[in-house]
Amino acid sequence: MTLSRDMYFSGLAIDELIEQEIEEKGLLLYKEALDNIRLEIAKTYEKYSKDSKLDWGEMLKYNRLNNLEEKIKDEMRKLNRRQQYLIKTIIEKAYTEAYYTTGFSIEEGE
Question: How far apart are CA 20 and CA 56, in angstroms?
Answer without folding.
Answer: 44
